[in-house]
Design a protein that fits this description.
The protein is of the alpha/beta class. The chain has 10 helices and 10 strands.
């Protein structure tokens, strides 16, 4: 597919995960990504300033998040691209792009959600909107967010890859809606089951959501769960990713060989060492002027 019909959307949203580090991660991801000769747009996300987010209707930063999603919609609609790459930011950045792609491809879009978490919670369970996005894309959850999805993604066209242990609410939701999933242990060995799913479903157009926290912190350090100098019990009870770096790379490349990938969202990159070094340099003579 020609880059001229591809939109690269830089979307440094951090409010959905209520973590200012997502902003820097998105900036760095945009820098290290391969160059493009296609379309490039940036969603206007206010730079974090250390101020606490206001909780509105059960969600941190609700009004800002909705505003940013609508701006993303406008940027996408302006270009009417055939494909979209999203460089985030927290997971919520894929809401507007994937909703657009499903509408463009007449409700036939397949979604490969490469993530340790299903992202189907609602404000009743959690006050961070990045944990809601896949539910919203399927038409479930908070009305302000589902209103941004003109044509919900069919549940039978969604596959979770690398999904870890789920909460009771998530387990019940997945069972009720008969959502397909494949665990990290299987995918660390082979992509075959994902390829079989794509072929069995007849998926011709596919969007891939890649939350970096699907990977194990033993194999990749720029993840939420690898944050340095935090209390030892900070992540107790939270599901952590278990996929190997090489297995994720192989999975996405294998998928691209059997179907037309029209969406790729890369999210939740947290380059802790780069941020530590940046903060160090701010203190140095001649650099701190």
């Amino acid at each position: 597919m020609s880059d001229s019909k591809n939109l690269r959307l830089h979307f440094p949203q951090w409010q959905g995960g209520d973590n200012e580090a997502y902003y820097f991660g998105s900036q760095l991801l945009s820098y290290i990504a391969p160059p493009t000769n296609g379309l490039v747009e940036t969603v206007d996300v206010p730079k974090p300033d250390g101020s606490a987010q206001v909780e509105e209707g059960g969600l941190k930063g609700r009004s800002q998040i909705i505003k940013q999603a609508k701006q993303a919609q406008q940027l996408i609609d302006k270009h009417q691209p055939d494909s979209i790459v999203v460089l985030g930011g927290d997971c919520l950045v894929d809401l507007a792009p994937f909703a657009y792609l499903n509408k463009k491809y007449d409700g036939q879009l397949g979604v490969l959600w490469v993530d340790a978490h299903p992202d189907i919670l609602t404000p009743e369970q959690y006050n961070h909107a990045h944990a809601m996005v896949m539910g919203n894309l399927m038409g479930f959850g908070d009305e302000q967010f589902t209103a941004l999805v003109e044509r919900p993604i069919a549940t039978e066209n969604v596959l979770y890859a690398g999904l870890g242990k789920t909460l009771d609410f998530e387990t019940d939701f997945i069972k009720e809606h008969q959502l397909d999933f494949i665990g990290p242990e299987t995918l660390n060995q082979s992509s075959a089951q994902v390829i079989e799913w794509i072929k069995a479903k007849g998926i011709k157009k596919l969007a891939i959501h890649f939350d970096l926290d699907v990977m194990s912190t033993a194999d990749f350090g720029s993840l939420y769960f690898a944050e340095p100098n935090v209390p030892a019990d900070k992540f107790d009870g939270l599901t952590q990713g278990a996929m190997q770096f090489a297995a994720v790379q192989q999975l996405i490349c294998d998928v691209a060989s059997v179907t037309d990938v029209v969406g790729l969202g890369i999210t939740e990159y947290l380059p802790w060492d780069a941020m530590r070094l940046q903060n160090m340099l701010k203190q140095f003579p001649l650099l701190n002027r």
